Amino acid sequence: MEDFQIDEGGYLRIKNAAMRINKTIYLVGRRAARTHQAYSDFDYIIPTITSKEWAKIKNSLPGAKILQDNLPNRIDLLKVSVDFSRPYIIINP
């Protein structure tokens, strides 16, 4: 595995989600830049994702709301193109 800025369990959850919808998922922002804190949100870009596909995977991604811990959702699905001049992590299906 490459030098990912997320733990292996988080990577595998994102990889599983990518496989379920057969789309590449980009992790961007502070987590990709290695400047995140423990409760930083997860910024995802998933080109051409539909609302049905998002509903299928959103609760399985790192950053999803955890009811038993009463933690809020920490996911941002960005509706922009990936800026390849800035840090990103690519997870292919």
Q: How many structural domains?
A: 1
CATH superfamily: Beta Polymerase, domain 2
N- to C-terminal separation?
Answer: 15 Å
- Order of neighbouring strands in the sheet with most strands: 3-2-1-4
**CATH topology group:** Beta Polymerase, domain 2
* Beta content: 15-25%
**Number of helical regions:** 3
Radius of gyration using CA atoms only: 12 Å
Instruction: Name the poorly predicted regions.
Output: none
Q: Kindly state the number of beta strands.
A: 4
Features:
single chain; Beta Polymerase, domain 2; 93 residues; 3 helices
Question: Describe it for me?
Answer:
The chain is α+β, with helices and mostly antiparallel strands and 93 residues long. The chain has one domain (8-91): Beta Polymerase, domain 2. 27% of the residues lie in helices and 16% in strands. Strands 3-2-1-4 form a 4-stranded mixed sheet. Strand 2, helix 3 and strand 3 form a beta-alpha-beta unit.
Helix and strand arrangement:
Layout: H1 8-21, E1 25-28, H2 30-33, E2 42-45, H3 51-57, E3 75-77, E4 88-91
Parallel strand pairs: 2-3
Antiparallel strand pairs: 1-2, 1-4
Give the structure's gist in a few sentences.
The protein is α+β, with helices and mostly antiparallel strands. The protein has three helices and four strands. The mean pLDDT is 85.
